[in-house]
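Notebook entry, cofactor series.
This is the third protein in the set we're modelling with a bound small molecule. For this one the ligand is zinc ion. I'm keeping the input format identical across the series so the outputs can be compared line by line later. Sequence and SMILES below, as received.
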Amino acid sequence: MIHNLLPQQTVCLLPIPKHDKEEPCNGHLRKFYPFADFFSDLDEGLKAEIKKDFGGAKTVLVYKCRLCGAIYRPRPNSILAKL
Ligand SMILES: [Zn+2]
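Returned structure with ligand:
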């Protein structure tokens, strides 16, 4: 699934199991070009979902968590433009 970014969100907030409880992932979000990146390790289902939303152009940009690999939909005019 593709997640929506909150205003000014720069880290991943998905709850993941840590130390026997759920905590926010806190992984940094990186720019990710799912259709241009030769080394894309994205699973095919997620890729198909991105394609449905954004098309399959090489310039399609989303954000990807470095830790858990969650995909976020970029928001125009968000602080992420600075990343
Ligand atoms: Zn994450």
